[in-house]
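Support request, please re-run this one:
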Amino acid sequence: REYARTARAGLDPFELDLLGAHVRAGGRVLDVGCGAGREALGFARAGFRVVALDLVPGMIEAARAHAAAAGLAIEFRVGSVTELDAPPGAFDGAYFAGSLHHVPGRARRVEALARIRRALAPGGALILVVVYRGRRGLVSRSRLVDLVRRLGARLPGAFRLSEPGDGWMREVSEASDPREAIFFHDYDGPAEVREELRAAGFVAAEARPGWWVCRPEAAGAGPELP
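Re-run finished. Output below.
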């Protein structure tokens, strides 16, 4: 299956070097939006203790099977990052790649980032990967009304597409079902990402376009969390 091929692809050397440069060796890493497990398996092979989270049960099942076949001990959890309830300081690092822009609404994205910040131990870092404006496959705004009507029942709560950059995608990766439209926030550029990170209590810098190294600001920064 395509999921298995994606999981076996392994890490790009840049990914592993970036995490290794900012998270202590053997540290506990949270992989947010783990999908079929490509990154989680790669981090575990590198000696990190990995907890992998994804909202889709089928993805977690696939990732768990891939980890078992590889003989890797990874803790997999089904859940939303906007409801992450990890104890403060639970992780030495977090990896959040290609998933933040699928969280609908700026407030929810800031909350997701803030929950990750709270879960980081002193000295910990979040590696965040986002996509900027111009992503191929984004469904045009002229079709949003029809899409919202047909897919409204699948939206969380009473959310509506009302913020600049919101749209729908027909394809997210080679492992995606192109028949299904998926919410996607198309970031205008680094300034918008930096503002959401700042609102969540992070200071951040780009290692290369779209790749952010984020560290918690002083205690008390960021929004109040339940």
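Helices lie at 2-8, 13-22, 38-45, 57-70, 106-119, 144-151, 190-199. The two ends are 40 Å apart (CA to CA).
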